[in-house]
What we know:
Elements: H1 3-21, H2 30-35, H3 42-53, H4 56-69, H5 75-101, H6 106-114, H7 117-149, H8 156-206, H9 209-219, H10 233-247, H11 251-259, H12 264-276, H13 278-293, H14 305-313, H15 316-350, H16 359-383, H17 388-399, H18 403-410, H19 418-438, H20 442-445, H21 458-480
Amino acid sequence: MNSALIIVALGFVAAVVLGSFAKAGQKMNLEQWTVGGRGFGTILMFILMAGELYTTFTFLGASGLTYSKGAAAYYVLCYLPLMYALSYWLFPAIWAYANEKRLVSQPDFFVAKYGSKLLGILVALVGIAALVPYLVLQFKGLAIIVNTTSYGAISREWAVWIGAVAITVYVMISGVRGSAWTAVLKDVAILVIVVFLGIYLPLHYYGGLGNMFSAIEVAKPGFFELPKAGSNAVWFGSTVLLSALGGCMWPHAFGSAYAARDPEAFRRNAITLPLYQLMILFVLMAGFAAVLQVPGLTGSDVDLALFKVVTATFDPWFVGAIGAAGVLTALVPSSIFLVSSATLLANNIYRPLRSDVGDAATARIAKSCVPLIALVCVFFTLDGSDTIVALLLMGYNLVTQLFPSFIGSLFAKNPINRYGAIAGILAGIGAVAIISLEKFTLVQLLPWLPASLQDINIGFVALLLNVATALLVSFVVNVFAPHCAVRNA
Length: 489
């Protein structure tokens, strides 16, 4: 067994042990398992929010996008600060309403606001549909990290299975508390590793950042500019906006909003978390360093860029340390996503269909759903070939379709009623599903669209369709069937 594999294995063990011991002294009822008993302060909320946002995408996807697309990768630097700015205003409102109503999941919020169990089930289904590619993203990243840093000693398939079992164990035991505790270890490890790689690799191979940019520009002219077609300025702007809106709509984002002790935790974190975003800048520098050192990667192999250059640069023991940090970027977010998915299945799909199910039974069902969801994600991980970036954007395209109905619910006089909310969400996710499955382009769908807008993010188009449908259906119901139009709570 090589030294790299031993260190990666120790990272696995540390994550599972720390996550499992988070249960100590706590009774894992539904509220404690899903939202940590609503007792997380500012520091723990900071760690939890960073833990769920800085994933294997940060480690592999961002560097792979930098390697393959150049300037287009800068969108990653832009959307999270915008999302944090939105969270400053939105999350305290979510917390206040959820705390008053004792809500435990995202669909609970929509059910309480719109008075519709059917809408709650739909929101839960959308959340699960969005979380599955996000979980697949983590498992795919985990497979790449373990396989590469173990120098092939562990296959990608075995890495996925081992990771799925490890996450399932401590999620079933400790819920969101296990995620938060493990996130502490992850944040320290990833911060040190990423900053080091972003500084060392450009210095080692090029003598500095300026020399690196000059060398790449000579070899690949225009690499640091947005292209005129494809990942151009229109795509960039629409993707940044779509991702910022969607970032507030993930089921686990709502879960973190419920877990806080008070709303000021969100405001303080909204101010400080954008500084943490600078960490991604170092990931991008490492990705740029790989462009000329490991050339020729195409398709889904671009996700290997960072670890290809790492294994070519460092001794096995240090590769193992980097791999252990990478493993944590997969395990921590995966555990959070599993808690959210299992809660949605048990509390918002199964429970509404069985009125006799109480909190204790719901908690047991949620925990039993964890291995089932993990198994489904393992299947898609081993079966699929999409890049990490493609998986992330697919999830965002789906979950953003909840944003119009959510924003409408915050107004004193909501312009969207329950029927409009359901119709809008169905129109949006239907558009995303058809476009994604059939591989349509915007030019094929809307050939009359001006050339300057033909590269707009497809998910943004689906969002516009969502808004138009929600408002139209709400208007028609209010005018022609006023007895059906119920004032929103």
